[in-house]
Write a structure and sequence with these properties.
It comes from Paraburkholderia azotifigens. The chain is an alpha+beta fold. The protein has helices at 2-6, 28-34, 38-41, 46-49, 57-68, 104-118, 128-140, 157-164, 166-182, 209-221, 250-266, 277-294, and strands at 13-18, 23-26, 72-78, 83-92, 95-102, 147-154, 188-194, 197-203, 225-226, 231-232, 236-243, 272-274.
């Protein structure tokens, strides 16, 4: 008992379970985490007092430690206490000693960091890094038979920033992000890759589905935008490329969609253009001449 009193100053909770799975000692931190006075727990079976533990990873770790004589760990959300716990079970002569830690905030921080690494903070769409990861997974791992890429660049968006300010520009980008994602079906996902550029992936879709999505986006783009800071309208240039028709790998697919988008820009904007065999020939010629320009 004295050993457990010394442990009362630890932030981790400590409890001793005997070989009949009854509480023998519960320190103050453990009682606080379990939201029960230790006097209510001592001598009672853990599975009876916390029935939702049955079948959980905690039960598995506790029984594994008792059976093998080796430490085991479990981390899981325990709904009755609305808490993520990390529990470390250590075999001892009388049963097992369990160190319990509340890791709810650490888990929440991990989720936030993961979201920051995956999503664009302004629009909530996936970011460039996540887009590339997904595209490589689809193509390199062979999980998709076809992938259409729509490369979207807003026309004359710089004028909005210059006329109304960057805060107004960000409001417009949020609206555009919502309109793009609202134009997509289950087979597609949208990304903001930076600035006023967006990319849409359409996976294993019927023929001409990508062109239909592009047309739908163009229609939504032309709708009037009204935010607290600005009233305006925008258009976009969209380039389309398809794996495996117009590209052999993920990087080439993105490059070809980008090339088609610039071709749409040259037509005056507010156009949709597909990457063609002629585009491939021109691009191949430019790439062959590129080393000459460096000399």
């Amino acid at each position: 008992m004295e050993d457990f009193q010394l442990l009362d100053h630890f932030t981790d909770g400590v409890m001793l379970l005997d070989r009949q799975w009854k509480f023998r000692n519960v320190d103050r931190a453990a009682a606080r985490l379990l939201k029960r006075p230790s006097t209510e727990l001592i001598g009672r079976e853990i599975w009876a007092e916390y029935p939702d533990l049955v079948g959980s990873s905690y039960e598995k770790a506790y029984r594994q430690a008792a059976r093998t004589g080796l430490p085991d760990t479990a981390t899981e959300f325990y709904a009755p206490l609305d808490t993520w716990f990390e529990a470390r079970a250590f075999p001892c002569e009388d049963g097992i000693t369990v160190l319990v830690r509340d890791v709810t905030e650490a888990r929440a921080m991990s989720v936030r960091l993961s979201e920051q690494a995956t999503y664009d903070a302004l629009t909530g769409l996936i970011n460039w890094r996540e887009l590339v990861i997904r595209l490589h997974r689809l193509i390199d791992d062979g999980t998709a038979n076809s992938v259409d890429v729509l490369f979207i660049d807003l026309d004359r968006f710089k004028e909005i920033n210059e006329s109304f300010g960057h805060a107004a520009g960000e409001e417009v980008l949020r609206v555009i992000g919502e309109r793009i994602s609202g134009s997509l079906g289950e087979r597609a996902c949208a990304s903001r890759i930076g600035g006023d550029e967006f990319v849409v992936l359409v996976v294993d879709a019927p023929e001409d589905e990508a062109a239909r999505v592009a047309r739908s986006i163009m229609v939504r783009m032309r709708e009037h935008i009204e935010t607290p800071s600005v009233r305006t309208s925008v258009s976009a240039s969209i380039g389309l490329a398809q794996y495996s028709f117009a590209a052999a790998n993920a990087d080439q697919l993105l490059r070809n969609a980008d090339t088609a988008m610039y071709q749409a820009k040259r037509l005056g904007g507010s156009h949709v253009r597909s990457f063609s065999k002629e585009d491939a020939q021109r691009l191949s010629h430019r790439l062959r001449r590129w080393p000459e320009r460096l000399q």
